[in-house]
Amino acid sequence: MSEEIAVIPGDGIGQEVVPVAVDVLDAVGDFEFVHADAGDAVKAETGTALPAETREAVEAADATLFGAAGETAADVILPLRSAVESFVNIRPARAYPGVDALRPETDVVFLRENTEGVYAGHEDDLSDDLSTLTRVVTSSASRRLAEFACEFVEAGRGPDGTEGFTVTHKANVMRKTDGRFRDAVVSVADERGVETDEELMDAFATRLPLYPDDYDVVVCPNLAGDVLSDLAAGLVGGLGLLPSANVGEERGLFEPVHGTAPDIAGQGVANPGATVLSAAMLLEFLGYDEDGQRVRDAVEGVLADGPRTPDLGGDATTEQVGDAIIDRL
Amino acid sequence: MSEEIAVIPGDGIGQEVVPVAVDVLDAVGDFEFVHADAGDAVKAETGTALPAETREAVEAADATLFGAAGETAADVILPLRSAVESFVNIRPARAYPGVDALRPETDVVFLRENTEGVYAGHEDDLSDDLSTLTRVVTSSASRRLAEFACEFVEAGRGPDGTEGFTVTHKANVMRKTDGRFRDAVVSVADERGVETDEELMDAFATRLPLYPDDYDVVVCPNLAGDVLSDLAAGLVGGLGLLPSANVGEERGLFEPVHGTAPDIAGQGVANPGATVLSAAMLLEFLGYDEDGQRVRDAVEGVLADGPRTPDLGGDATTEQVGDAIIDRL
Ligand SMILES: CC(C)[C@H](C(=O)O)[C@@H](O)C(=O)O
Ligand SMILES: CC(C)[C@H](C(=O)O)[C@@H](O)C(=O)O
Predict the structure, then answer these.
(1) Residue A218: how many CB atoms within 10 A of its CB?
(2) Where do you find CATH 3.40.718.10 in chain B?
(3) B101-236, superfamily in CATH?
(4) Helices and strands, counts by H and E, chain A
(5) What atom in ligand 1 is closest to the CA of residue A244?
(6) Which pLDDT score, from 0 to 100, does residue B1 have?
(7) 3-state SS string over B277-301?
(8) Which residues pair with B109 in a beta bridge?
(9) Which InterPro entries does this chain map to (chains A, B) (predicted)?
(10) What φ, ψ does residue A174 adopt, rounded to 5°?
């Protein structure tokens, strides 16, 4: 191992949790870390939330670990996703031991399209009264996502017992765009012999809280994936432990789903779990599956009986939890 | 009272629950009912899901009561919303006595923009690979919705204790369109002295299951309102009891949030609650607030100790529940 990893703590608790995840990566491997800045603080200093050096560091690295950004989140994260040419955002949502969850049965992995939909972002002010946004859907991006979803399921990377995936969309209203998405995804799965079922995104929002067991892997357009995975976060107890991976052909960007948590930033008590679990996804992305699993097991061990940060009812610091995770590796 | 009410049972359980709601309306007032067809069955017969006579009946009526449509739902409901020139879809989501709910504290009214967003529906296939949809947001529609929201809150029509409203959007990504929506809504509220807070729609999806008490009235763009109100439905036990009102300046269209329920259609055991509660919203729309409240009280009384349909654990028929509601009026 000597891959280069770009490290961008960002703002708020990103500054506190990312160093823990770096220590974890350092404990299991021999990586070269390249530190870079992005977010509100660097914007206040330099006028730009995403300096060119940061983008270049991300483009040069094999993988990037990102913490969080404040007001400038979209200005940072969207260009970084494209800097790693990410076509899928992987968002596992499951309950962890010892975390109060409304629906502990939830165990779902969202595979979110990561390049288009409303995020393609062509917007215009056509008059004083009217603005438009052009939502873009291509068969090629939809097919690429579907290929990934099929491989994901075939490789057994879904929750235990996963046999296929659910595709969500709103093709009854967005007939051409989401219709194209649905048709492309379903036809790739059919070609590969992977089972699919379909659910309208509104029905999915009703049903996930009621029947979380019905879902394993869920393939979504970009904004649907954003909203529905965040809904799942609410069912498993919040964002504190949810990791995510922005995966491209060559590079990846790994980030906790949570934000900067301004209410607790600077106190040294943020839960590093989501970021450490994102580092586990980074390890797997680089091919170190066993190390990824070791990190995951260590986090779960600490959650089950180690020290806990205040969000989980304990009084440990970020550092104490980090040390406990590393001790278990 | 001698207003004209168009009645469109539609498909599936719509055929069973709408007659109950008509009986209820007939019991409290003296309306002229005009029956009309729409949905899958009429499409199979005539080739069109929404015959011109039906649209005309809706345009001529003071209010319309609609049941449900199957595959053709979008072909029926979207043109009907525009036939009554509805600019807001009112969707109260709350738990009812005796209904198993994940989050019984939920008591939220969604005010959904009902004319634009992705529903404005300009879609194109630009190549074999690419389709676009033009999402449309105007300040005028957003302001009209906001005026309505302010009046709604000022008139005490929100849940008890409502002091303002939450506006949800995704203006960090859809900067011009949802930015315009947010700015228009907030500025109307500011002019009128109504309090607002803002929540990104993804954060709202995480937080509603966790902190349902934090929300009373929620003002949303069209698709956000669709998905987030359906999420709330999941938290209060499902769609069985949720009514909705599509309100325009002159006319309104009232419909249960649930669909045709093909699994139980034809058995005479569908829960008429959502449709009867939609009829209560119809009464209020026509100015018969007391009658609307009587109907609501009757439904709640039956839910608390009257006969129940199988979805609520009972073995009563639709007709028995309908009779029990009418007996209580
Ligand atoms: C910050 C924002 C642009 C981003 C998104 O919408 O993708 C965030 O909500 C997320 O899901 O990572
Ligand atoms: C049937 C469909 C077009 C409709 C919508 O998306 O508005 C439905 O989901 C609803 O919310 O009434």
Answers:
(1) 27
(2) 1-88+242-328, 101-236
(3) Isopropylmalate Dehydrogenase (3.40.718.10)
(4) 11, 12
(5) 12
(6) 61
(7) HHHHHHHHHCCCHHHHHHHHHHHHH
(8) B92, B217
(9) IsoPropMal-DH-like_dom (IPR024084)
(10) -95, 75
- Measured between CB atoms, does B1 come within 8 Å of chain A? no
d(CA A78, CA A222) in angstroms, rounded, equals 12
> Which atom of ligand 2 is nearest to B73's Cα?
1
Model confidence at A1, in pLDDT bands (50, 70, 90)? low
**If you average pLDDT over residues B259-266, what whole number do you get?**
95
Residue A262 · residue A16 · CB < 8 Å: no
A220 lies within 8 A of chain B by CB: no
Q: Domain A1-88+242-328 in CATH: superfamily? A: Isopropylmalate Dehydrogenase (3.40.718.10)
Tokens of B236: 């209060």
* Closest-CA residue to B135 (of A204, A226, A126, A198): A126
**Contact by Cβ (8 Å): B180, B145:** no
Catalytic residue flag (residue A107): no
The answer to whether B109 and B153 are in contact (CB under 8 A) is no
| pLDDT tens-place string over residues B73-132 | 999 999 999 999 999 999 999 999 888 999 999 999 999 999 999 998 789 999 999 999
Give the pLDDT confidence score for residue A121 in this predicted structure. 72
**pLDDT of A237-255, one tens digit each?**
888 899 999 999 999 999 9
* CB-based contacts of B286, cutoff 8 Å, min separation 6: B1, B3, B62, B63
Chain-centroid distance, C-alpha A293: 17
B285, B245 Cβ separation under 8 angstroms = yes
- φ, ψ of residue A322 to 5 degrees: the values are -60, -45
> Do A254 and A77 contact (CB within 8 A), yes or no?
no
User: Residue A104 class from Cβ within 10 Å (0-12 exposed, 13-18 middle, 19+ buried)?
Assistant: middle
Task: State the amino acid at position B67 in one-letter form.
Answer: G
Distance (angstroms) between ligand 2 centre and the Cα of B226 equals 7
Give the H/E segment covering residue A270.
none
Its pTM stands at 0.97
Q: Considering only CA atoms, which of A203, A209, A207 is closest in space to residue A235? A: A209
Q: Any idea what DSSP says for residue B124? A: E
Site of tokens 């006028």: A47
**Which residues on neighbouring strands pair with residue A86, listed in sequence order?**
A248
pLDDT value at residue A94: 95
Distance CA(B101)–CA(B98), nearest Å, equals 9
Size of interface A-B (CB pairs under 8 A): 159
